[in-house]
Amino acid sequence: MNISKLEQRVLHVLAQGGFIKHTRDGKDIVEVDCFSRDGYRLADCTLSLFKRLKRRGLIHSIGGQPYRISRLGLDCVRAQADNR
Hints:
32% of the residues lie in helices and 25% in strands. The protein is α+β, with helices and mostly antiparallel strands. Strands 1-2-3 form a three-stranded antiparallel sheet. Strands 4-5 form a two-stranded antiparallel sheet.
């Protein structure tokens, strides 16, 4: 599966324990924020990027909780060095 650099960056943050918090306006999702496990906000996560990840099945939400990486997303993400 072809995954862009920005998608890889978001999936990598999610694979390390991050989540995507969403805001709804009625039924539609109108705003998303991606947070790392340390609580930092990732500025690269936009609504269009979120919709692409969701459409491909790389992220999922259970019971209205924040979105997390799915099993398919874990299989698709490439390993990266974690330089803290």
